[in-house]
């Protein structure tokens, strides 16, 4: 049994408790959160605040070897041109080593669960041994209809392998701009069968311009690379491609939403009540030098979760860095709300809130210490760091 205390404990399902004492059993299960009493003995006291383990709702662990390879601010078409060229710059064992290093790095920083996009089984062995819970989304994309059957088979094979290994795993779609109609509708049906999907949405203004006006960089990109079965412009926002006839019960992680307008949001929540707006602010600054309309999402009480995205578009896989980026740019968002995005909302998005996301008795959410917090203003500072306790 451990008793842990700090300046404040943020249980997330309830208000922060000043000098609260968290009792955790030897398995890591929460026993109770109580007020400090003079009679309490053997309390580990930490300077800072404590919250449940972070849920990184969007990552691509298998791209960890691409750190510092793609220049910043390329825009999305520049970025997706670079990825296939660079994906194999390291040999397989180097790729696995990088992924292993960052799996460990994430855990030490307090990340206990990850929604991880995989295009292959490269990370499966390390996931088997990891302290982190992964939900693996096996992603498919291609704008060549002739390849659809091959891609579907490969995707199914990878999902089946994960299932045999006991993983939480499901098939998913990449993005509105990167899939021909045949693959898109097949993958959508498959994902709906699993009841969960993750989808890169409106990461660039180029996506909006292409689908709405048949203009912009995607038009150029498709013709430059002679893409055979590009999706056709619809005159409507790209959110419609997925959501027009989406199964209402499927949990949906819409990832990025950097260029989501208020009417896109209104349409999306009318189409499904099961959307989590999964934001990766540092990746957005890296690729597009733009942030999502976080004030709008917050004002509309959107269900927001936070992801780090991959090291091909980030300098780190650190949730605290993502939260700092939000609070630096949107100073009126309260710390408790930010931490809710980084914990409970991510857990709900992945369907694991019975174990993760809050300090409710019986859960095993992990405990994270965040130091160098300004507890007067209750804000993170540039010196704030996080670690698993
Ligand atoms: Zn991504």
Key features of this structure:
389 residues, alpha/beta, Urease, subunit C, domain 1, TIM Barrel, 2 domains, seven-stranded mixed beta sheet, four-stranded parallel beta sheet, 35% helix, binds zinc ion
What's the alpha carbon Rg, rounded to whole Å?
A: 21 Å
Which spans have pLDDT < 50 for at least 5 consecutive residues? Answer: none
* Number of β-strand runs: 15
Oligomer: single chain
Which ligands are bound? zinc ion
Count of separate structural domains: 2
Secondary structure category:
alpha/beta
Mean residue pLDDT: 96
Alpha-carbon distance between the two ends: 14 Å
Q: Quote the beta fraction.
A: 15-25%
Number of helices: 13
**CATH structural fold name of the largest domain:** TIM Barrel
Largest sheet: 7 strands, mixed
Proportion of residues in helical segments: 25-40%
CATH arch. level architecture of the largest domain: Alpha-Beta Barrel
The CATH first-level class of the largest domain comes to Alpha Beta
Gross geometry: globular
Overview of the molecule:
The chain has 2 domains: 1-52 and 357-389, Urease, subunit C, domain 1, CATH 2.30.40; 54-356, Alpha-Beta Barrel (TIM Barrel). Helices cover 35% and strands 24% of the residues. It has helices at residues 75-86, 92-108, 124-129, 148-164, 181-194, 205-213, 217-224, 239-243, 262-271, 281-287, 294-299, 319-329, 335-349; strands at residues 2-9, 17-18, 21-24, 30-34, 43-52, 54-59, 111-118, 133-140, 168-173, 196-201, 251-256, 275-279, 304-306, 367-374, 379-388. Strands 1, 2, 3, 4, 5, 14 and 15 form a 7-stranded mixed β-sheet that branches. The protein has a 4-stranded parallel β-sheet with strand order 6-7-8-9. Strands 10-11-12-13 form a 4-stranded parallel β-sheet. The structure holds zinc ion. The site of zinc ion has 6 residues, from loops. Zinc ion is lined by residues 58, 60, 117, 200, 255, 309.
């Amino acid at each position: 049994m451990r008793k842990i205390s700090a300046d404040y404990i943020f249980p997330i399902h309830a208000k922060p408790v000043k000098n609260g004492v968290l009792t955790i059993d030897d398995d890591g299960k929460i026993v109770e959160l109580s007020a400090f009493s003079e009679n309490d003995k053997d309390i580990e006291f930490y300077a800072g605040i404590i919250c449940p383990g972070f849920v990184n709702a969007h990552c691509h662990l298998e791209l960890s070897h691409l750190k510092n390879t793609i220049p910043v601010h390329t825009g999305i078409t520049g970025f997706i041109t670079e990825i296939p060229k660079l994906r194999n710059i390291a040999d397989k064992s180097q790729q696995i080593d990088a992924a292993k290093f960052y799996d460990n790095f994430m855990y030490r920083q307090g990340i206990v669960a990850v929604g991880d996009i995989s295009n292959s089984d490269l990370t499966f062995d390390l996931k088997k041994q990891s302290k982190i819970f992964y939900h693996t989304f096996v992603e498919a994309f291609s704008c060549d209809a002739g390849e659809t059957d091959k891609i579907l088979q490969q995707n199914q094979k990878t999902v089946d392998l994960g299932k045999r290994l006991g993983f939480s795993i499901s098939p998913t779609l990449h993005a509105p701009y990167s899939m021909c109609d045949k693959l898109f509708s097949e993958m959508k049906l498959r994902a709906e069968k699993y009841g969960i999907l993750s989808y890169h949405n409106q990461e660039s203004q180029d996506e909006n311009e292409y689908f709405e006006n048949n203009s912009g960089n995607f038009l150029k990109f498709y013709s430059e690379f002679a893409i055979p079965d590009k999706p056709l412009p619809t005159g409507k926002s790209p959110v419609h491609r997925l959501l027009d006839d989406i199964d209402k019960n499927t949990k949906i992680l819409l990832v990025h939403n950097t260029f989501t307008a208020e009417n896109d949001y209104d349409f999306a929540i009318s189409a499904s009540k099961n959307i989590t707006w999964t934001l990766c602010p540092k990746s957005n600054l890296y690729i597009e030098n733009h942030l999502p309309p976080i004030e709008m999402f917050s004002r509309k009480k959107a269900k927001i979760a936070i992801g780090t995205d991959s090291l091909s578009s980030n300098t780190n896989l650190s949730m605290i860095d993502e939260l700092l980026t939000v609070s630096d740019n949107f100073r009126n968002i309260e710390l408790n709300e930010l931490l809710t995005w980084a914990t409970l909302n991510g857990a709900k998005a992945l369907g694991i809130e019975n174990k993760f996301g809050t300090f409710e008795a019986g859960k095993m959410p992990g405990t994270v210490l965040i130091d160098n917090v300004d507890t007067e203003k209750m804000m993170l500072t540039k010196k704030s760091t996080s670690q698993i306790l």
